[in-house]
Amino acid sequence: MMDCLYAKCIPCITDCVMAELEKLGPKYRIALRVARDPRFERLPCMHKGTYADDCLVQRVSQHKCYIVATCDRDLKRRIRKIPGIPIMYISKRRYTIERLPEAYGAPA
């Protein structure tokens, strides 16, 4: 991810995303192991339920400082409706970033 962005970044994961990964069972155990990495920052959730998509959409609507990384088509469709939120996903075995401003963090 850092090689793709050419910058230091801190991957963050919300409590409800972790809960959703745990519910998905053994098929997603590798994703769960990656998400439990101590280098990932855990973001606490204060809402009821564990539907991660609603939580992520609400969080990026309030704080427009995130890049959302997902391969979920429905979530990408919902995030595209929020102006100014870049989306990172894997396409053809490569990281792709959509809607990242050209001069984002670059010296003028």
Helices and strands: which structural class? alpha/beta
- Report helical residue fraction: 25-40%
Listing every helix as H and every strand as E from the N terminus to the C terminus, the arrangement reads HEHHEHEHEE
The CATH class label is: Alpha Beta
Give the name of the CATH superfamily.
5'-nuclease
Gyration radius, in Å = 14 Å
DSSP strand (E) fraction? 15-25%
N→C terminal distance: 24 Å
Task: Give the mean pLDDT.
Answer: 87
Main sheet specs: 3 strands, mixed
Number of helical regions: 5
Here the CATH topology equals Rossmann fold
Silhouette: globular
Q: Which strand order do you get reading across the main beta sheet?
A: 3-4-5
**Secondary structure: number of strands:** 5
CATH architecture: 3-Layer(aba) Sandwich
GO biological process, one term: rRNA processing
InterPro entries: Fcf1/UTP23 (IPR006984), Fcf1_PIN (IPR037503), PIN-like_dom_sf (IPR029060)
Protein name: Fcf1p
Keywords: Nucleus, Ribosome biogenesis, rRNA processing
Task: Describe this protein's structure.
With 108 residues, the protein is of the alpha/beta class. It has a single domain (1-98), classed as 3-Layer(aba) Sandwich (Rossmann fold), CATH 3.40.50.1010. The chain is built from five helices and five strands, in the order αβααβαβαββ. The protein has a three-stranded mixed beta sheet, with helices on one face. Strands 1-2 form a two-stranded parallel sheet. The protein is globular and about 40 Å long.
Summarize, please:
With 108 residues, this protein is an alpha/beta fold. The protein contains 5 helices and 5 strands.
